[in-house]
């Protein structure tokens, strides 16, 4: 799987900063449109064998979310440092694509990551 960052809901001010932070890492970037939030993440990350689902998403979300496909732990650390260095700051909802969540649609992953994030910050 090639290294790719999937970006969800970044506004016109933050998106260029995030893209600038990702570029030096020689990583693909895909900005995901809300109409595609029903697609499984494996398809969006262009993993062979995943097919497009017909129709548009009925459910969406508004939070920024970043999904890293093909990343090692070192790659994740480099991306976080690069986001800070290039002025993009923190992205609260982040996930690494796994064999399990590659079968999920964007909304399901968002809901799981958001629940984990809220649980972590309550402690």
Characterise this structure.
35% of the residues lie in helices and 15% in strands. By secondary structure, the protein is α/β, with parallel strands linked by helices. It has one domain. Strands 2-1-3-4 form a four-stranded mixed β-sheet, with helices on both faces. Helix 1 (14-22) crosses helix 3 (73-85). It is globular and about 40 Å long.
Compact overview of the structure:
The chain has 123 residues and is an alpha/beta fold.
Keywords for this entry:
123 residues; alpha/beta; 4 helices; 4 strands
How is the topology of this model organized?
Elements: E1 4-8, H1 14-22, E2 28-32, H2 41-44, E3 65-69, H3 73-85, E4 94-96, H4 106-122
Helix pairs in contact: 1-3
| Nearest-integer average pLDDT | 95
The amount of beta strand, in percent, is 5-15%
- Give me the side-by-side strand order of the main sheet: 2-1-3-4
- Percent range for helical residues? 25-40%
Which shape, going by the Cα principal axes? globular
Give the C-alpha Rg: 14 Å
Number of domains: 1
Q: What's the total count of β strands?
A: 4
Query: What kind of sheet is the major sheet?
Result: 4 strands, mixed
Query: Any low-confidence stretches, pLDDT <50, length ≥5?
Result: none
The number of distinct helices, counting runs of at least 4 residues, comes to 4
Briefly note the structural class of the backbone.
Answer: alpha/beta
Order of helices and strands: EHEHEHEH
